[in-house]
Design goal:
The chain is an alpha/beta fold. It has 24 helices and 28 strands. The structure holds iron/sulfur cluster (SF4).
Length: about 700
């Protein structure tokens, strides 16, 4: 809305950073962001924001923004007109497709772009290029959680709302650091602790901020979460503390599941995890005594060889104790990026159309063929992990990547970068000249969220609208416009004039969002999927049963995958994660002066014991090496980590310090999510303080 001084504008937007999905009014004057004003109407955050949402907007005016399309000639990039960049891109992609087949081209969409843009990206891959080679970064983070939720409950989304976390008697946080990675959500747990005496259990390798505030902190050995979760579940059943009525009426497969738990005795569980039997019993008792339990988890669970199975063990525990399908209970994988949920919901996956409809189902395919007026590929495509392998094998020749710095954030970054070197044609769409963009042949300048309209879907399946606060800077454009122009140069006849039209088309093709419309999402209104045709939505899933056989949840037996073994010389256990001030690798927050000043570099946390044993002083420059690469950074001595466990924040857009130069290509069996959290390293001091 225009205010008294006509150049001052107040625009409702949704935060561009984490998956909590805070919404607020942003005040601007010309291109200057004056202030961020949260509102009681904001469903996920009300009057709260964190440092990133409140102060993290300078990047939109950064002088590092790419303002014109760029084409590589030799080793340099040259600015060109949109016409030239688009024509050249369409020509090269079509040449490669016609020569090597549609599956020689692949598409990576973005968890930072809107639902509408994600929908168009998968439509471009499928309807225009005739390939299912489309994926997004949920492959790196929460795909194992989605797999677990679909196995056990049916839908691949959080079972309730952030509000339920406040209502629960007991919250358990496993392998997550919400005080830094999902700050506003952690504030709401903190409030419930203070106001209602809510109990908190934190299981983590690192004594993070929430662990300090917990009633019980569990520090199991790295990679053994499935074991303690299964051991505790078995103990609960053995004691008769399970919810027999719920199990009888609403759950299938109990007997087979109980048989699968046989080996997880207290003695075995204690031996494998390093947790004492007393601690395991105390955990079981706290769960059994609580009237309502919620479990939150994140990358500390999913980024392991057994990430899907450990996520499933969490769901099994909740099912056995009847803590799903009623308010104040449930499973909450905490989505990392603001729209990682939406990227999956709107079909940016090699096996699913929008709404998790299988590409292998002929009836579903026929529906999309009719709607889009084209024939569609019949087999699932490559996920982003397989794409990197396929480039190395010479099978994949061209890639169109939107808004991901894969060369830094994918695991085993050296391997990914050497794959990008081999691409015959590479299109990167971004705001900044990222590490990944350095490998591109064409760079399209994209606009950030403040410069466009659309919708984002947060961690609790909540769809929210964002409105345009600023015009696109320079010649940059919203992603949906760029994708449309590429498609139309390749023979499509897309006539979209607004994100609203795209949203309507997408929602019309999926039961999950059938009743979602821009009108129903006006201003601060929001909808949590499934959204039925009459516009009612679903803050709580499964109140009336589960969309599985017989309407019942399914207990799913799982087994433990021991962590990777590595040569003994690599004697330190490496963990990694986010910082409060920066978002992930820092592509945006490193361009916010206030934040960058406060936390300018990444670092390695080492324990006081290790520091003493190796003579490493606080602030010393160290080299950290794994079998896959090495990095240099300063050491921070802290008791957040213990013994031989070390921790490196994800923050870094530079080659010499990015933690993913150390991580491997090993991955979860079912989803291919890299085992980022299973690496061992060695350390040497380069320079004393
Ligand atoms: Fe943004 Fe997440 Fe902070 Fe909310 S908690 S303001 S969504 S970064």
């Amino acid at each position: 809305s225009e205010l008294r001084e006509s150049r001052i504008k107040k625009t409702k937007t949704v935060c561009t950073y984490c998956g909590v999905g805070c919404s607020f009014d942003i005040w601007t004057k010309d291109r200057k962001v004056l202030k961020v004003e949260p509102s009681m109407d904001a469903p996920a955050n009300q009057i709260s924001t964190c440092v990133k949402g409140k102060f993290g907007w300078d990047f939109v005016n950064s002088n590092e923004r790419i303002l014109e399309p760029l084409i590589r000639r030799g080793d340099a990039f040259y600015p060109v007109s949109w016409e030239e960049a688009l024509d050249y891109t369409a020509k090269r992609l079509a040449e490669i497709r016609d020569r090597d087949g549609a599956d020689a081209v692949a598409f990576i969409s973005s968890s930072k772009t809107t639902n509408e843009e994600n929908y168009l990206m998968q439509k471009l891959a499928r309807a225009v290029f005739h390939t299912n080679n489309i994926d997004n970064c949920s492959r790196y983070c929460q795909s194992p959680a989605t797999e677990a939720l679909r196995r056990t409950y049916g839908y691949g989304g959080d079972t309730g709302s952030i509000k339920d976390l406040e209502m629960a008697d007991l919250v358990i946080i496993v392998g997550a650091n919400p005080a830094e990675a999902h700050p506003v959500l952690s504030t709401r747990i903190r409030r419930a602790q203070k106001k209602r005496g809510q109990k908190l259990i934190v299981a983590d390798l690192r004594k993070n901020i929430m662990a300090e505030r917990a009633d019980l902190f569990l520090h199991p050995r790295q990679g053994t979460d499935l074991v303690w979760l299964s051991g505790v579940t078995k103990y609960i059943i053995d004691q008769g503390w399970h919810n027999q009525e719920f199990l009888q009426n609403k759950v299938q497969n109990f007997d087979e599941y109980v048989a699968s738990l046989e080996k997880y005795t207290l003695a075995y569980t204690s031996e494998v995890t390093g947790l004492s039997q007393e601690t395991l019993i105390q955990t079981a008792k706290m769960i059994a005594d609580a009237k309502s339990v919620c479990v939150c988890w994140a990358m500390g669970v999913t980024q392991h060889l057994g990430g899907s199975d450990t996520s499933t063990a969490i769901c099994n525990l909740l099912t056995v104790t009847g803590n799903v399908g009623r308010p104040g209970t449930g499973a909450y994988p905490l989505r990392g990026h603001n729209n990682v949920q939406g990227a999956g919901d709107f079909g940016c996956a090699p096996n699913f159309y929008p709404g998790y409809q299988s590409v292998s189902d002929p009836a579903v395919r026929a529906k999309f063929e009719q709607a889009w007026g084209v024939s569609l590929p019949t087999t699932p495509g490559l996920n982003n992990h397989q794409m990197v392998d396929a480039i190395h094998e010479g099978k994949l020749k061209a890639m169109y990547l939107v808004g991901e710095d894969m060369a830094i954030v994918d695991s085993n970054a050296n391997y990914v970068q050497s794959a990008f070197e081999k691409l015959e044609f590479f299109v990167v769409q971004d705001m900044f000249f990222s590490k990944t963009a350095q490998f591109a042949d064409v760079i399209f300048p994209a606009s950030p969220s403040l410069e466009k309209e659309g919708t984002f879907t947060n961690t609790e399946r909540r769809i929210q609208r964002l409105y345009q606060a600023l015009p696109p800077l320079g010649a940059s454009k919203p992603d949906w416009q760029i994708i449309t122009e590429v498609a139309n140069r390749l023979g499509a006849n897309w006539k979209y004039t607004s994100p609203k039209e795209i949203f309507e088309e997408a929602c019309g093709l999926t039961e999950l969002m059938k009743g979602a419309t821009y009108e129903r999402l006006e201003g601060y209104k929001s909808l949590q999927w499934p959204v039925w045709e009459d516009g009612t939505d679903s803050p709580h899933l499964y109140l009336d049963g589960f969309p599985l056989e017989g309407g019942k949840a399914r207990l799913w037996p799982v087994d433990w995958t021991p962590p990777l073994t590595l040569p003994e010389a690599y004697d330190l256990q490496l963990n990694n994660g986010r910082l409060l001030e920066h978002f992930h690798e820092g592509n945006m927050t490193q361009r916010v002066a206030g934040i960058q000043k406060k936390v300018p570099h990444t670092f390695i946390e080492i324990s006081p014991e290790l520091a003493k044993q190796r003579g490493i002083e606080d602030g010393a420059l160290v080299r950290v090496s794994s079998p896959y690469g090495s990095v240099r950074m300063r050491a921070t001595v802290t008791d957040r980590v213990q013994g031989n466990e070390v921790y490196i924040p994800l923050l870094s857009t530079k080659d010499e310090e990015a933690v993913n130069l150390l991580t491997s290509s090993d991955h979860d069996t079912y989803t291919f999510t890299p085992a980022y959290k299973e690496m061992r390293v060695k350390i040497e001091v380069l320079e004393f303080t």
